[in-house]
Amino acid sequence: MIKATGVKSALLTLAVGLPAVSVQAQDLNVLLNGAIEAEHCAYGRGASAIEQAKTEALAEIARAVQSGKVLSIANTYEQMDTASSTWLQQLSDMAQAGYDMRGLRTNTSKPRLEGSDTCVTVSLNKQPLGTASTDSGSWDDAQTTVSVTVVGEGWRDDKQGMSAREVAELDALRRAISQVVGVWLTEQRTQYSNTVSHTNNTSDNFAMNDFVARQLQTKSAGMVKQWQLIDSKQLANNGIEVTIRADVEKQKVELATSHIMQQIGSPRVAVAAPAPLDSELKRWLSQQGVELSDNANLILRAKPRLIERAGTARLDLRVQVTDQAGNVYGEWQNDPALLSLPNGPNALYDLIDVHLALEPQQQALSKQLGDAFMRVVQEGGLVHDVYINSRYLAQPERLSGVLSTLGGAQDVSISNNGEFYKAQLRFSGKTGDLVAALQQSLQPITATELPKAVIANEFTIRFN
Amino acid sequence: MKNTLKIALSLAAVAVLSACQTTQPAQQTQTGQVSNRASNAIIAKSAYRFEDDDIKVPAYFDTQGLANCTFDRSNENDNCPLKKPIVRMYFSGTDVGGEGQGVDALREYDDSQLLKMLENQFAGINRFRIVTRDDSVISEEKQLQLEQQGATSVANRAAERRVLQPDYVVKLDTLRTVKNEGSITGWMDYTLELTAATIDPYTREMLSYPNLGKIRVKSEDVRDRSELKYVMANNRYVSGYRYFDSAHVNAVINDMASRGIDILLTRMLSEMPATAQVLGIKGNQISLDRGQNAGVLPNETMIIFQYSAGFVEPIGVANVNPSRNSAMGEMTLWKDSSLADTISAQAEAGIYRPSNSAKIFAVSVGTPANFLENRT
């Protein structure tokens, strides 16, 4: 009956408070070869009944071993060999001394049916007794640096004027930082609740570490205190693989990473949704630690729709994270099949409540938000609109070139409506920093001195 | 003498030839009467009233064991005999066409309530897992839970326990007709014909099994003819049965449909009998490896047979009562055969446990004898 469980590791749950079930104690046997056998039956059929019978049988064996009962049974066998009686004695002694019997191998027989019960025989065979050991590594607070050994690969880069070795070393250093960031992020998981969901599985973890490491590389230097070359070898097409051991400064990684994480984790968002969804979403976003602002460049657009059928209603809810320019950074849709309620005036409220109360849906929405924020940073920051009155510009044709050279700015595009030049660009810093940078860098191409900038909102700067 | 011999031989040859010519063609078919009589329920005889000749293995027995079962309802192996198809039920009535006395009232008949009755009745025999179409009760209950237990609890429960996805659709088609007879004093005569189909909604295949045939119910099965009598004068209704009143017509049609569903159930139980494996026999007591979980009903009449090398050999009949996962039965009559004698002798002396090469099974004969009395 049912598949044979075979030999496998089993937990000898000694003092587990099992739920009161009708498990009948059966025989406990000690065989001549030193194996201890217990038979148990549990009410029901299938895996749960088998598991229950097995657990009870194992507990029975454990009790018998601890109490020394196996020895008294075994003593009656005069013909038992010395190895077997020694093993029983040793097992009993160790169990009494508090030896953790988990991990001992047991055999479970094929289950068989007896009336409404399912029965199994579990046997603990003679086997070497030892102790298991585990090793773990963690962020050691006592040290100021973390040493990691990493491998980097590189090929000659004529564009940047770097040799293959330099590229390989840079690659290795980036990986070193990435690794340390990974260790630190794991330690700090609970701190950034917004971004926690990203780091829940391994592939996302790598993506996150790598992303942060790349950001760190462009933003700051000196995270690696020192490094030494351990090995290098040639790769195909004149490439080089280097192995280095790098000491990464913990504090700097911590500071820079947390800065980036904050940037990713809490940009401001505006909510565009019909009532009552808007207030529900705002409440939920506040709970998630996301800052709300009606003038934010990032907008959470939500569209609820009631699917009505035969007097019942279900909710179809779609959420998009976009910016003012219409770029979509993330999308999320609920699972409309989750619940249907009687269609009435409050159905929409109730359904929104239930859908936003469900943990996996919350996490999925949260993850989409987090991903969207990460994409914003990845793409070079939010889109800002800069309006400059034409009369200030002496060389408007150079506007695009000048703005492109601004530190932290990218994706510049220019348009003109006669009176104003409108520049759209992504900027990863604060709006105030952008204003300061603009005033300085635009000087060479202006006809007269620029007036004081008017910041219409977080993403619109006007020189009227 | 020679001539006489020749003649004799010739005569013999002619006789042989003529004998060949007079051979009759094989008679394998015969003319049958197509009946339009009302259908009737066929139920099992009580095991206590069986005689030796009655002990034969009925159709559709299935000797599949529980070895393939995971006993996990939501993830059961396809080869497990306890795995039941998940179905949603539909009751579809064809439109009543034409004009005439009582036709309008018959046309107004609403069968949505019948659907719920059908679901309830079918769920009880445990041959299918039924996904209810009763949206109003379900959504009302969720609304109440939302008020009483809160959104989080409802959301978690809803996410945990998703609605079952049906494998098949069970559709019942009904055909309703009416005719009236008589002149001044006339009576209405209603007929309801029911057919059932099991359909794979994706491939649109109509399954050939279970085949429940056609069920015909006539108004005279549920009402005395005098109850459907009415009196007309000058072509106007005067008194008697109110054939034009949909409430009155509904009452009759409901009874007819209810009877039709009862017959349908009995056919379903014969078409899909409960089968179980006999784990042991002690005296006259038999122990079966499954019970309610395999659709064994109380007071089930079951034929006990040995299955070996593809052959079945009946050994007796038993009256069986189920528990949740197993069933116990009483052998009411052992078959008069050497095999049955051997087994019964061994069972008398202790517990007889069937061997793996000659397993013993039990198959239900059909609807238990007291089912119609107690359950319909």
UniProtKB/TrEMBL annotation, chain A:
Q: Which UniProt keywords apply?
A: Signal
Asked if the keyword Signal belongs to this entry, the reply reads yes
Signal peptide annotation: 1-25
Q: Which domain of life is it from?
A: Bacteria
State the protein's name: Flagellar assembly protein T N-terminal domain-containing protein
Q: Source organism lineage?
A: Bacteria, Pseudomonadati, Pseudomonadota, Gammaproteobacteria, Alteromonadales
Automatic annotation (TrEMBL), chain B:
Its keywords, alphabetically, are:
Signal
Query: Where in the sequence is the signal peptide annotated?
Result: 1-26
What is the protein name for this chain?
Uncharacterized protein
From the broadest rank down, the organism's phylogenetic lineage runs: Bacteria, Pseudomonadati, Pseudomonadota, Gammaproteobacteria, Alteromonadales
